[in-house]
Design goal:
Helix content is about 60%, strand content about 15%. The protein has about 300 residues and is α/β, with parallel strands linked by helices. The chain folds into 2 domains: about 60 residues, Helix Hairpins (Orthogonal Bundle), CATH 1.10.287.80; about 220 residues, 3-Layer(aba) Sandwich (Pyruvate Kinase, Chain: A, domain 1), CATH 3.40.1380. Helix 2 packs across helix 3 and helix 4 packs across helix 5.
């Protein structure tokens, strides 16, 4: 084996080793972010499921509110939650595919559809397909703050109340575990009392009996406040689900990349050792042959 070939194999091994270090580091970072997202999701869903149940109870009885009125306007907005970065398997592409599928579904119902992109990668993919993006928001840190979720919720609810949009759908990835995630589309506005399929029903101390509420100052005032809280909470829930799914997907993708790099290093090392052994055998044969010719 020539020295140039050996040098080439050593350079390839060194390059793959450096790549393995990067993917391993990204895996550890994603695992750390995932733990934070899971803790936030567990804590928030306990609160949010109770809020949804109370809102479902209070919103019955025909109390009017602009966020609960079905609009005749045939303009809809699809809000897609995606990641800020790639290298997370099919996470971003699955969200985009479902958002485009929802667009087709709404268009078949006569709606003119625009998009709101929460996350850089979703916005890029939709622009590449020539889609109209009404608004884009990029996350600044690891997890969204309540203020960020409220900002997004206020923007969307204002579009609906002002009559600019007649229907809003959320497309996000529901987190179950690092290896189990489902991309779903969920109705956001107008609000319906039956919304909240993932909520955990409240129970009274006596068992399954219906909870009765004493409302003060008035049902209308409390409903208004509950709906405002629900809007930001629903956005926060979708945001945390999506981020936990993104971090889990990236952790698994980087783990697989690290394993592939390890296998490639082993293969290249084996090739290098075999080539070195062949070169040594050839040199020995040449020495023996040269010595024999001198006799």
């Amino acid at each position: 084996m020539s020295k140039g070939k050996a040098r080439e194999l050593r350079n390839k091994i060194r390059s793959v080793q450096n790549t393995e270090k990067i993917t391993k580091a990204m895996q550890l970072v994603s695992a750390s972010k995932l733990r934070k997202a899971q803790l936030e999701l567990d804590n928030f869903q306990t609160y949010f499921s109770s809020l949804v149940q109370i809102l479902s109870e209070v919103s019955t009885g025909g109390v009017p509110h602009p966020l609960m009125k079905t609009s005749p306007l045939k303009r809809a907005s699809v809000v897609i939650f995606s990641g800020e970065r790639a290298l997370c398997g099919a996470y971003n592409s699955n969200a985009v595919k479902l958002a485009l599928s929802e667009e087709e579904k709404l268009q078949s119902e006569g709606y003119e559809v625009s998009f709101v992109a929460i996350g850089k990668k979703g916005a890029e993919a939709l622009r590449n397909k020539g889609k109209e993006i009404q608004w884009e928001y990029n996350l600044k840190g690891t997890l969204p703050s309540n203020e960020e979720s409220s900002k997004i919720g206020d923007y969307l609810s204002n579009l609906f109340v002002k009559g600019e949009i007649g229907r809003i759908e959320l497309v996000f990835t529901e987190f179950k575990s690092a290896a189990s995630k489902t991309t779903i589309a969920d109705r956001f506005l107008p609000y319906e009392a039956s919304q909240g399929p993932r909520m955990v029903p409240l129970k009274s101390r006596e068992g399954d009996a219906r909870v009765h509420y004493l409302l003060e100052p008035s049902k209308e005032t409390i409903l208004k406040k509950l709906l405002e809280t629900y809007i930001s909470g629903k956005i926060h829930e979708a945001f945390i689900h999506s981020l936990a799914s993104e971090y889990g997907s990236r952790m698994i993708a980087m783990d697989n990349a690290s394993k592939n790099a390890k296998e490639m290093i082993d293969t290249l090392t084996l090739r290098l050792n075999r080539a070195r052994q062949a070169a040594i055998t050839q040199e020995i044969a040449e020495i023996v042959g040269g010595a024999a010719s001198l006799e």
